[in-house]
TrEMBL record:
Protein name: Formamidase
Pfam families, per the entry: FmdA_AmdA
InterPro entries (UniProt xref): FmdA_AmdA
Gene Ontology MF: a single term: hydrolase activity, acting on carbon-nitrogen (but not peptide) bonds, in linear amides
Length: 311
């Protein structure tokens, strides 16, 4: 079966069904994408926090493609099997003014550069404190063109996918996307080396990546109206510490859960608030614990305890 290749420069900055495809493939064929990081190359291993002040926001979150899949018609489903992902040797995380769940509380820019130990499978968050993050790379952006005329920003997610930022769609997983235009027009990008559920500060461990997927048209899934996925979750008896937010407004409850985790990390592990917020984004998992006992929701921020004190 043929494997097609998409180069770094074959990218676009909006979901728009008028963008011509960079390749046409048959259903069931594979495509390899060579993607820059979400900054579109504006951040590199030599960058400083000053780099964030000069970011051109219109260039962020580019995606590579689109790919035209033969026999794909509106109403069909595109099955995306994630076959392989290779990150760079480095990555970055940042607090970018105006972005993130607690943007009003963290107005100053902050940049963290990471060295990714791909052989060992982790990156040090703080070696002196023994805090390290296991690597579980995935593409934050995977989507197909919308049926409505564009352009539409690549930053929010849509029912056709896009910036879904779902860490579970990694190697071995399968994503299902509703097709709204002929050929599907699939694109991907936004490489992440690791991320917590929620990506609360607005960035994960961002990194350039090479990702290979198999694209298959499915005629038997008319119920696929939003992104669905199947994935394997390993059971490793992980211990978590959880903080919660309780409120009638889910956003307020979510913000509280993260805020209380920041307080906990500062008190128990000696982190600064900026460090703790970033750690929540790359390692903490948000969960809906309770949604039926009105008027309040319970949202939890769960932090795996295995990241602390590791050598």
């Amino acid at each position: 079966m043929s494997i097609h290749s998409v180069k770094r420069e074959q990218c676009h900055l909006a979901w728009d069904n008028s963008i011509p495809p960079v390749a046409r493939i048959k259903s069931g064929e594979s495509v390899s994408f060579d993607c820059l990081d979400a900054s579109n190359g504006q951040i590199d291993p030599a960058s400083t926090v000053a780099t964030l002040r000069s970011l051109v926001f219109s260039r962020l979150d580019q995606v590579n493609g689109p790919i035209y899949v033969e026999d794909a018609q509106p109403g069909d489903t595109l099955q995306v099997d994630v076959l392989s992902i290779e990150t760079a040797e480095w990555g970055w995380s940042a607090l970018i003014p105006g972005f993130g769940l607690l943007a009003d509380e963290f107005p100053e820019p902050e940049l963290k550069l990471w060295k990714l130990d791909k052989e060992a499978g982790f990156a040090w968050f703080d070696e002196a404190k023994g805090i390290k993050i296991p690597l579980r790379p995935f593409a934050g952006e995977m989507g197909v063109a919308r049926g409505v005329k564009g352009p539409y920003s690549t930053i929010p997610p849509y029912n056709t996918g896009g910036n879904i930022d779902t860490k579970h769609v990694t190697v071995g997983s399968t994503l299902f996307l509703p097709i709204e235009v002929e050929g599907a027009l699939f694109s991907t990008g936004d490489g992440h080396a690791a991320q917590g559920d929620g990506e609360v500060c607005g960035t994960a461990i961002e990194t350039p990546m090479k990702v290979t997927v198999r694209l298959t048209v499915r005629k038997d899934r008319p119920y696929t109206k939003t992104p669905h996925f199947s994935t394997k979750v390993s059971v490793n008896n992980e211990e978590y510490y959880c903080t919660t937010g309780v409120d009638a407004d889910m956003k307020t409850a979510t913000q509280a859960a993260v805020r209380y985790m920041i307080d906990f990390l500062c008190a128990e592990y000696g982190l600064g608030r900026t460090e703790a917020y970033m750690l929540c984004s790359v390692a903490g998992d948000l969960r809906l614990h309770e949604v039926v006992d009105m008027p309040n929701y319970v949202v939890g921020m769960m932090m795996p305890q295995s990241i602390f004190g590791g050598s």
